[in-house]
Amino acid sequence: MENKQCWVDIPENSDFTIHNLPYGIFTVGRKTARAGVAIGEMVLDLYEVANLGFFDELKIAKAVFKKDSLNDFIALGKATWSALRTTLQKLLTAKNSPLKKVADKVLVAQAEVTMLMPVQVGDYTDFYSSIEHATNLGCLFRDPKNALLPNWRHLPVGYHGRASSICVSGTEIRRPKGQQIPKDSTQPVFGPSKLLDIELEMAFVIGKNTEMGSSVTTDTAADHIFGMVIFNDWSARDIQKWEYIPLGPFLGKSFASSISPWIVTMEALAPFKVAGPKQEPEVLPYLQYQGKQNYNIKLEVALQPEGAKETVISKSNFRYMYWNMHQQLAHHTVNGCNVKVGDMMASGTISGKTNKSYGSMLEMTWAGKNPIKLKGGDTRKFLQDHDTVIMRAHAKKGDIRVGFGEVVGKILPAV
Description:
By secondary structure, the chain is α+β, with helices and mostly antiparallel strands.
């Protein structure tokens, strides 16, 4: 489908084309939270569309669209997601679409809405799946000759994070406090983090429950993944370094993670599948997979000091991931761990092969040795108070463009 076929105006290079139709939760005016789909610069109110009877043939209860999360809708299953997407594309492209006649009742400008967390996240897991990132951290924190730990090429390393502090784009982030170890000292001190960092990640949302004791295979993983968001896993490197190397699975990470508000479905991302890097040595049978399971999604990180213009400090790509989502989910559940609708699983920092494509300031500055130059003459080793970080992501192939919008967070001083 060409964008011009859609009767809703879609600006050039919009992330939210007829090929996309991502889902989110929003409020507008005095209306309660509800599900919507982004199209161009508008939001299609799915509850109002359902209320007018457009989804009657799909037999979707309209109440699932008048919730403060997408969990109930997602739980309806892959066949329902696909059927609704097809119906929406027809309604938004038909020359004499009956939906167009009630456009004023079902469309609202994105500029007028408040976006909420799209899902209720029950559990959150953060992986460590970029070989470039893992190698960089190994060089910085350990022996460059043995940067990767012995297990790294054999399994997708991960840890269980804190779901309660995942927040939607636009949420301001308070600088965390904690213990740190000063240079050339053996005694820790307490105070605000001085080495506050970002981590450029993507995350996928679980779309189907499993039972405890069962496992998802790489062949069935696609049935359990609803869609993806941009994920900024804020990291306090000095707190992290004192707690544990390299993951810092407690206070160095748990204070906040930010996500983009629109969940892009795997069906929308299907045209952008690409082959992943060759995995050597060969992985164990339960981690072997068929076909192309990486995605060519372009990523961008911008940093904007207060009152200044933004500077793009990194351009990366999700295709670099050594371990793909199917392998991550298969490994996560191989021991019988159950997953639930709405659970979120992040990729880990996504880094490319050069410092222009690294996914953290720790890598970009090589632990502060090479400060980043910003527009206007400022430099940064790590984030300062009142800095704003913007992450963007989109995929493009021919005339098809599918984007994620932005995830934005501003750093506030510690209290």
